Amino acid sequence: MKRKILYIEDEPYLARIVQDTLELKGYEVLHKKDGSRIIEHVNNFVPDICLLDVMLPDIDGFSLASHIRNHNPQLPIIFLTSKTQPNDIVKGFSSGGTDYLKKPFSMEELIVRIENQLKIMGRDTTPAQSLPDEVILKQYRFYPGRFELHSPESVIKLSNRESQILAMLCTHINTAVDRRELLQAVWGDDSFFNSRNLDVYIRKLRSYFAKAEGIEIVTLKGQGYHFVVS
Q1: Are 145 and 107 contained in the same domain?
Q2: For the residues 201-211, what does the mean pLDDT come to?
Q3: How far apart are CA 129 and CA 117, in angstroms?
Q4: What predicted TM-score, i.e. pTM, was given to this entire model?
Q5: Does 149 share its domain with 175?
Q6: Gap between the Cα atoms of 220 and 215, Å rounded
């Protein structure tokens, strides 16, 4: 069965090269030149992964990713962009992206990144599987299988990465979890790129527990994290 790619790119020449190459590699590609009706495309086409240009005429790729992530917390999203400033990269991951490829890029690198994202999504998420359906964290409730964190005020829809990281922390409550171990469990490698990505997700998880009493994600410099629930 062919893997499906939803590809949003407004530059026709680049879009044709990327689509033709991916289809030759056996992928089914749905290309759209703008972000209108993005959720409709996700619902009807049911992609395995999304490739999003950041600079689009109607809505930027970061906003598109946020819409997709609210609808589908598990779908991998790779940004394709010439925006290379650190704050752009952080914004991309904060909006729900799972990878970031700078233009100009080689098709070989794009294919490797696509396959890596699909491999990550396809493998067993061991930390989440080792947890019960409901994890009680003081006044919070974490549901790993539903990608949800229930606070006293609201239900927070987690991305797949957020859920995996929180699951890993929950298997190490009140003990240290090694940063490298966490990176290997969630991304499959501990590269600098993924390490920066982890920093973004840890900040997001901390923001979810900002009002919690007795819950804290403590950074252990040079080691990892201590998930305190007291």
Answers
A1: no
A2: 93
A3: 20
A4: 0.60
A5: yes
A6: 16
